[in-house]
Design a protein that fits this description.
- Helix 3 packs antiparallel against helix 4, helix 4 runs antiparallel to helix 5 and helix 5 packs antiparallel against helix 6.
- It contains six helices and no strands.
- 67% of the residues lie in helices and 0% in strands.
- With 242 residues, the chain is mostly helical.
């Protein structure tokens, strides 16, 4: 009897299953809870607005939409620079081009095309700091005109909503400093540094989106409705910057 020799072949490997990073998942869950918090502030704003429309009209008469729009544009632009920094950290561009992750710039600092994550995140930090300074300047102007947190329901909800957002922006600036410090200290640019940059960008984009909604509701909603002629709170645009 001939004994057949069977050659054992290894079983085919199971296809790799991509698992999302736990840190990124945790960031999304935390941002979802923050969204609920700001949703409560928006509900509070509309409730008070419906109860004392005249008080809100008097408070918004002190706004300078031109300055608020300029400050908003700076914050929105910082979201763009932040995302470019993430692309440098990941080593890929939206069009599919892949390259070696770039932590620092290549060549002169004036060669923007050669910037790395550190340069783009530093620029984002500067723009975020300008936004916070602009918000502090606006607060000072409003207080000078008698709009304080205790002066009226409008002042209370305005400072509460925009103030909490400002605290979130400051928290984002601190996070940028931590990511930059970690990038400077790391001898190699690993996945840990990449994930840190990505998670901070999630937070920063969230802060920007919340502010866009705040800006639209607090600064633009009533003036736009006034132009249409159907608003119970007549508020005019003031496009002056200073």
């Amino acid at each position: 009897m001939t004994t057949a020799t069977l050659t054992e072949r290894p079983a085919p490997a199971a296809p790799a299953v991509g698992r999302p990073n736990p840190t990124q998942i945790g960031t999304f869950i935390w941002l979802a809870s923050e969204l609920m918090f700001f949703g409560g502030l928006f509900a509070m704003y509309f409730t008070l607005r419906s109860m004392v429309p005249d008080v809100f009209a008097d408070g918004q008469a002190n706004f300078k939409q031109g300055f608020a729009l300029l400050n908003t544009s700076i914050l929105v632009a910082s979201s763009v620079t932040c995302q470019i920094g993430v692309y440098m950290a990941e080593g890929r561009l939206p069009g599919g081009r892949v390259f070696e992750p770039r932590k620092r710039r290549e060549g002169s600092i004036f060669n923007i095309a050669g910037w790395g994550m550190i340069e783009w995140f530093t620029l984002t930090y500067i723009m975020g700091a300008i936004f916070v300074a602009g918000q502090a300047f606006e607060y000072a102007e409003l207080v000078h005109h008698g709009v304080t947190m205790s002066s009226s329901p409008f002042g209370s909800i305005f400072y509460l909503a925009t103030g909490f957002h400002g605290i979130h922006v400051i928290g984002g600036l601190i996070a940028f400093l931590m990511v930059l410090a970690r990038a400077f200290a790391a001898s190699k640019f690993t996945q840990h540094e990449q994930v840190s940059a990505i998670c901070v960008s999630y937070y920063w984009h969230f802060v920007d989106i919340v502010w866009i909604v705040l800006f639209a509701i607090v600064y633009l909603l009533d003036p736009i409705m006034t132009l249409r002629g159907g608003n119970a709170i007549p508020v005019d645009f003031n496009w002056s910057i200073f």
